[in-house]
Amino acid sequence: MRLAALALGTAACGFHAVAARSSDATDAPGTDATDASDAPPDAPPDAPPDAAPARFCPTSEPHLRMCFSFDQPTLPASLPEEGAATVPAQLTNVTRIASPLGGAASLAANSLIYVPMDSAVSGILASEIWVRVDTDASANGARESMFDSNIIPPNISMFVYRNDPHHDLHCGIGSQNETWTTDAFTLATWHRIACVCANGNLSFYLDGVDLGDRPGNCATAGALTSDGITIGSNNNGPGNAVNDVLLGAIDGIRLWDEPPPAVQLTTPTM
Ligand SMILES: [Ca+2]
Ligand SMILES: [Ca+2]
Predict the structure, then answer these.
(1) What's the CA-to-centroid distance between 262 and ligand 1, angstroms?
(2) What number of CA atoms fall less than 13 Å from residue 244's CA on the CB side?
């Protein structure tokens, strides 16, 4: 009942509509996330205290303003946020698949992930995504969106464009937008991407490699205070359907209000 009411509410607002909503498994019972970090009470006493694997969305990281791991056993229509944000993501036609980090959101042409406006997601200076694009954009010059808050400033966005035989990777933070051309972005491959504003530069890391530092005004910072953010599609604003959907999967996404640690940026794999 509750999920149905949420879906109706979303449809009634008409925000960020998609073409169709199929019956899906997201309203299955027991969809609340299981916290695998809880150590069993009878753990061996000689186990090192920090033996548990690092969580994709650490629970005590105040600079992590928005985080989605998609690691839950199922992905409900209202997916809890795992960082500092206060609102859940709204999922439509999203399939949970196994992935290198546990679970990922698999996206098709009619999929939608939308996080509404939230003042807790502000001062954003870095974005990270673990992404796999399986089908390229339909034409040379066309694009697929990894995420998009739409309003500039306070922009938070990332896109991949076909630029045959290369790809152009676009990042926006605050008032700055930049594009990097690369041959290292390949289809059907998991990529770790980070876009970081630091020391007056916007920098782009693909699988741990810095594609170049661009001076600009990214320090104006991104925020979800003018619109929410779509994940895996281009946000065209309230009342308008999304487009440029990412045809692939997203293993996780993080938005920070400070640059992630340098060692994390230069780690090539997930
Ligand atoms: Ca847009
Ligand atoms: Ca994941």
Answers:
(1) 29
(2) 21
